[in-house]
Amino acid sequence: MVQALLLYAIGLKANDRGSMADDMLSKAIDIALAIGMNDREFAIRNGCGNRLLEESWRRTWWELYVADGFFAGVSQRTNFRLRDVPTDVPLPCEEVEYASGYVPLSRTLEEYDDSAFAEDEVEYSSFAYRIDSVRNLGKVLAVTSEDVLDFRAIETADSCLVNWMLHLPDSKKEAISRDGQLDHMVFQAHMITDASTILLHKPRSTLDDYRSADEIRTCVKQCAPLVSTQARETHTAKCAEAARRLSHLVRLPIQPPLTRLTPFFTCAVVMASVVHLCAWSLVPPNYGGTGTGTGSSENNSCAGGLLQDCSSEATAAAVVGMGPDGDAVLKELIRLSMGALKTLAAQWPLAKTAAGQVKGVAGELFRAKREGAGMKDG
Question: What keywords were assigned to this record (predicted)?
């Protein structure tokens, strides 16, 4: 029943039926906790002495945990129910091991957490790194409320995101494995980490000043600026870099196509789109083109009130980590996101809704920049 409700909830979410999806996931969690699925003994008791079946039960628990994190991240709510539920369920093995029927001895979450201090470097399964990325998402969600003023908790969440990347083994640093195939678990782990980075840093950055992006409501939540623990430009740079990494995932030479990936990739693309749009609003029209480059407000008009204060081209480009061709680069990144959402929309109604919202804001900003360029030429 837990597995059925979990799959049903994910399908409902992807079909843009969020409220019903949340209800189904909540029921799955209620049942899982009632039967003790968060206890390592559950898999043993119900595995009938079959290691493959035991692994299936462990995977069910951890998939429920990941889905709960996904749902919380998409709605940006702090009640990630399973975040603080005690569990000693061992970590899943590699996908190829599970598919082959050979399940090695399981490793624990405690061993994973202590692995950085081990004498020998130990590589864990892709699923394990995915679980850890969701744990970090939980830490980020805990500090996304306006009333959170705990600088240490905010900095700890940031450190966890950076540490996750720094301690990845070489084989997990790219979503394409050594045999040229897509590792779906690693793909999702990177996706979650980059999305978490955006959730942590965007409300504390200069990018959050662009309010027209508030028209995009699917997978993102409008909130007041949050307390910064670093210079706002630092938060901006981290946010912009995370969005570019998400765009890199779109460009991967992957089979199957985008429509066969996790439906939650839609929300990651939307988050990247919002960041790119906000960054594009910082960069004056035709920046790096035929303009005089004097940096005067007269030459860099932000037309229609849609663009942010672009009084300094160099400053604007530096803030979002762009060079002199920033306007063109960001335009292509936005086109990439729109194309990905258009492709995903063929499969998922959630993506269709998001694609319309992103296209609407992008079109409005494009027209404002074009008018601004006309004013500049005039």
Answer: Nucleus
